[in-house]
Amino acid sequence: MSTMKTPRRLLPGLLSACFMALLLSCGGGGGGGSSGGSVVGLGTGTGGTPAATGTGGDSTGTGAGTGTGSATGTGGAGTGATGDSGGAGGTGGTGGDANGGTSTAGNSNTDGSGVGSGGTGVTADAAGIGAADGLGSIILNGLRYDTDSATFTIEDATELQIGMSARVAGKVDANFTSGIANQVVSAAELRGTVSNIDIPGGTFVLMGISVSIDSATVWGDANGLADVKAGNTVQVWGLPGAPGTLRATRIQISPTLTDPLATGAVQSLDKVHKTFMLGQLTVNYSPAVFTGLDESSLANGVVVRARGTTAPVGGVLTATKVQGWYAIPMADGVAVQLAGVITDFVSRGSFKVLGTPVDATTAQITGGPVGSLGNGVKVEVDGFMSGGVLVVKKLRIRNVPGTGGPASFTLIGAIGGFNSSSDFRVRGQPVDASGAVFENGTVSDLRNGRKVTVVGDRVVDGVLIAQHVAFSP
Fold first, then answer.
1. DSSP code of residue 335
2. E strands, 400-472, where?
3. pTM of the model
4. Structural domains of the chain, with CATH
5. How does pLDDT run across 402-420, given as a tens digit for each residue?
């Protein structure tokens, strides 16, 4: 009786196959179990090693912890696991409990779960900052976030509306196609008396800050800049650009609130006399309460909201509250979406958006030619933080000065308050679909309760002018 020996050169392959089979039997490994292929889950443990990395199947996990330890990763079956239940195919890590302890990721507004949900493809801790360009749940910078489990904090308005600036914290998939929001925060940027209106130039000055409009500016209760009058108290949501400037995303010319509010990058900080400049406005912060940032962290270039109770006197606003603006996480690996105006442009690989260094060298660029990138161009950028720089995967050009750019707003939900094709609401937003193209139905199918997706290119006098209405099956 003879025995067959396994050639020595085949042993590594057989051992690898056995190991993979063992992983599959435990529910991990298995490459390609998640819809995105490669998925990243982030979390922080509370008693493990400072960092852990590993691979499982075609999924890759990385850990970059601070403090007491962190472990992040993905299981090959699409589960971004954390802590000591790291999934057979993902990164192990020896940290904390199965929930990953607390996860700051440089962002105090994330939910801290550290749990990647590979089954849904939504796994990376994320923060999105921009203007709401859709409702249902919330669409920010073109990405739809599910808000079923999110908490909302809205200042200066009763509810979130199209065009309002906002910060969304939660999780997104690696390709920035869908997200789950844990927290949505929104507040206005400016409120005060208007001066120096330039209708042809599309600008005006509000309490010493230069405000510009573009084709995507939402007019909540007006038809355009011609309705804005010098001396009026106006409320503006927008995106800070170069110091002393703001690109308006929504304007309300008859706000309910009148207390002065100014937002921008701190200039000419004088910690002895407790003053700083926002554009041409001097802010006296000696009596102010600080929220969202410590007074000691106040520095030139930091974007803040300064609130008062009385109008500026002699160009000086006495602030009763100084708030940190929407926090941009800087920790490596965090997914970040930003909408804003380019500043400090050197090249495609070196510029800033909302004061954040950006590298778009390898980004997919849409909305216009690469050569149009430069200071003053409004863009949306999606990417991951690395060494304090946002390394961009996708960049969308939204407005080029003198050229313009596309604007699009989306509503997803059931029709309510129906009176006619030119007068109904979706998600509380008034809609005029009298000139729209209809899909999966006709204008006669419009009625209360019908679920629709409405897309329009402008909001005037508070009404979304629809171009396309699609009925849900």
1. E
2. 409-420, 423-426, 429-432, 437-439, 451-460, 463-471
3. 0.75
4. 335-399 (2.40.50.140), 409-471 (2.40.50)
5. 888 889 999 999 999 999 9
